[in-house]
């Protein structure tokens, strides 16, 4: 049986998608070979790649003046690719810090440009973590772009609003893309590693407004250069063909679910169920201020940390997997991405309640 998988990434994939991939594994659409064994330049593969892009454009309502790139190297390589692509004319950028991922992005960017760090993580009076109101941020007047991470996957902290700026807004959406509607036109660049809410590891999405394609630094490797990738359909070299295909199956599945608006409603139900239970219990606690709670990654602690090992072991026996928090912060974390169904969250809450009663 398939367990409920709360892994932060690589994360759960819809069972229907894995079944389709399994059915097509050895002989893709009667062609006598696996999609993995096909040239990325063959007409069959190019059609698969283009269909994935068209479906993503539909799901996210991506305007015509944006390019969609299917790249490799993970979101972490984008931490370098973004400054190399965008700081060629003006070497300054603002980076909003809210947690571990936005911190990693700005550390890497500092190797390439003049980075203004905007502190936005705060503690509320009752000791919860929150994102400071934009009026307190020290944004600069002359940045080439403003970078932030919509959802801090490790901390479980998410922006309640898109920041306001007249500069191109660059956002790491690795763990929240496709979980809720995004107005793409507000952004200069959106990027996301696939392995949280899109598909398997090995693929990184970049969605970039076309007018930003001409400001790269001269020393940029051509593989990282968005203008070259855009000109070549993300095939400057061999792309991650299987991950691209499988992500395309996820996009088809999402369209069948009714698209991003429909899955967002389910995601809100899941988050309300889990946070609601945690808030009602003295046994569990979540450290984030309500307005900035992530709807995808829910960290929680046990009143008695000595029970953590037992909690994880019992959860596993109940087919609830990967609930340990990130190694840097400890505690527990349930990642409830699109592919984790409401029943999975209900099963988790039932287990948590039972565990609390048994160990009170
Ligand atoms: C997982 C994650 C990353 C890193 O992704 P890789 O693809 O492993 O490089 C970056 N940012 C956020 C917000 C993430 O959740």
From TrEMBL:
Q: Which cofactor does it need?
A: pyridoxal 5'-phosphate
PROSITE patterns, sorted: AA_TRANSFER_CLASS_5 (PS00595)
Q: Which reaction does it catalyse?
A: 4-(phosphooxy)-L-threonine + 2-oxoglutarate = (R)-3-hydroxy-2-oxo-4-phosphooxybutanoate + L-glutamate; O-phospho-L-serine + 2-oxoglutarate = 3-phosphooxypyruvate + L-glutamate
GO MF annotation list? O-phospho-L-serine:2-oxoglutarate aminotransferase activity; pyridoxal phosphate binding
Instruction: Write down which residues bear the modification named N6-(pyridoxal phosphate)lysine.
Output: 196
One CC-aspect GO term: cytoplasm
- Kindly give the Gene3D superfamilies that the UniProt entry links to this protein: Aspartate Aminotransferase, domain 1 (3.90.1150.10), Type I PLP-dependent aspartate aminotransferase-like (Major domain) (3.40.640.10)
Which positions are annotated as binding L-glutamate? 41
Principal location listed in the UniProt entry: cytoplasm
According to its UniProt record, the EC number is: 2.6.1.52
Q: What class of enzyme is it?
A: transferase
Chain residues that bind pyridoxal 5'-phosphate = 75-76, 101, 153, 172, 195, 237-238
Residue intervals of the Aminotransferase class V domain? 4-348
Q: Where does it reside?
A: Cytoplasm
Q: What does this protein do?
A: Catalyzes the reversible conversion of 3-phosphohydroxypyruvate to phosphoserine and of 3-hydroxy-2-oxo-4-phosphonooxybutanoate to phosphohydroxythreonine.
Q: Can you name this protein?
A: Phosphoserine aminotransferase
Q: Which organism is it from?
A: Acinetobacter variabilis
Q: Which gene encodes it?
A: serC
